[in-house]
Amino acid sequence: MIPGVKLERRNLSVICLTVFIGCLVWYYRTRDSDNTFAFNMGSTAPSTKFKYEIVKGFFYQDAADTDPDSFDYTHNFGLINRSYPTDTNPSDPLWQRFTTYIHHLASAAPTNVSYKLLYLGRHGEGSHNVAEAKYGTEKWDDYWSKLEGDGELFWADAHLTAVGEEQARTANRFVKRQLEKGVGMPLPEAWVVSPMWRCLQTAQLTWEDVHGFKPLVKELVREVLGVHTCDRRGRRSEFEKVFNKGWEVEEGLTEEDELWQADHRETNEEIDERIGEWLDGLFARERGVVVSVTSHSGAIASHLRVLGHREFKLSTGGMIPVLVKATRLE
Questions:
Q1: Which of 12, 99, 138, 278 has the highest CB neighbour number within 10 Å of its CB?
Q2: What stretches of 148-267 show up as alpha helix (H) in DSSP?
Q3: How far is the C-alpha of 266 from the C-alpha of 275, rounded, in Å?
Q4: Is 240 assigned a catalytic role?
Q5: What are the residue ranges in the chain where pLDDT is below 50?
C-alpha cells in the first residue's frame, strides 16, 4: 500500500460525510424558513394558480347589509358569535372556537385546497391623504398628485401624519387586546408589509411589540403604481436604515423604484393581476394559516376583488379579516 493513501481516504470520507450533513441541515432550515413564500416582484410568476373564494358567515364585513362607513373593526374584528362543528365546550372564548375550526378546515382539506385567514390592514393617515382632502379628489388626481408637495405638505412616498401615527397605535392596542388569552384571536404566523414609508411606519407601530413580529417587505403589495408621487417608493437603503430590527426585505427589491411610471397609472385589471400573482405565491409557498398584510386602500380593494369579497372600503388605519379558500388549478 502506498504510504498515506489509507489516511487520505479516511480524510476524504470524513469530508464527504461533513458535506452531506451540511446539505441536510441547509435543506431542513430552508424548508422550514419563516418566509418560504418570498419571491421577487420582477421574477417569473408562480406556476401554480388558484381559484379564490371567501368563506362567508364568520365576519360581519362579509354581509351585504354591513355599512363600511360606520363599522368599527375594533369591536372584536367583526367576528360573528356562532357555534362551530368542532366545538367541544360552547363556553370557550369565541375566537378560540373559531381558531380551532379554521385549523380543522386547513388540516382536513383535500391536497388541492387550502385555507388562510388574512388580516388586511391599511396604513394610517399620510400627508397625501391630507393633501387630497385639502384640494379635493378631482384637483388632486388632475394636478396636485403629480407634484411632490405644495410648499406646506410633502407627499412623495408619503409619511404618516400625527393622526396616522395615533391610528396605528389604536390598532396596536386593539391587536394586543385581541391576542390576550381571554380573547384568543390567533397570532399571525407571517407578516407582509408594503415598502412604502407609511406602511412601514404603520406596521412598526401596530405590531413591533407583539411576540414573533418578523415582517417581510414585498413590492407586490404596494399601492396602485404610477403618476401619483405619493406612490413612488423611496430608496431601499433609506428605509433599511430605520426599519431593520428583525425586518427582512425580499430578495431583488431594487435600490431605486423601477416600477413607478410618471405617465401611466395601473388599471384595476393590472393591479388585480399583480395581487393575484402575490396571492398565488402566498398560497403555494406559505404553510402558515394566519397572515398579516399591511398595505394600501387601492391594493386592499384589489385583494377583495381577486378573492371574491364584497367591496369594503377601509378608513386610514383600518383593518379587515378575510377567511379564504383557495383551490389549486390543475
A1: 278
A2: 162-178, 197-207, 236-242
A3: 12
A4: no
A5: 1-44
Strands, E, within the chain: which ranges?
A: 50-54, 113-122, 190-193, 215-217, 248-249, 290-295, 319-328
* Catalytic entry in 132, 219, 223, 250: 223
223 is catalytic: yes
pLDDT at residue 173, as a whole number: 98
What residues make up the domain containing 19?
Answer: 1-32
Q: What is the pLDDT of residue 47?
A: 79
Distance between CA atoms of residues 309 and 153, nearest Å? 35
Separation of alpha carbons 111 and 37, rounded Å: 18
Can you tell me the distance from the alpha carbon of 88 to that of 74, in angstroms, rounded to the nearest whole number? 27
Cell digits for 330? 390543475
Do residues 261 and 226 make contact, with C-beta atoms less than 8 angstroms apart? Answer: yes
Exposed/middle/buried for 296, CB within 10 Å: 0-12, 13-18, 19+? buried
How many domains does one find in the chain?
Answer: 2
**All three cell numbers of 78:** 367583526
- The verdict on 70 and 8 lying in the same domain is no
Q: Looking at residue 23, what is its pLDDT?
A: 37
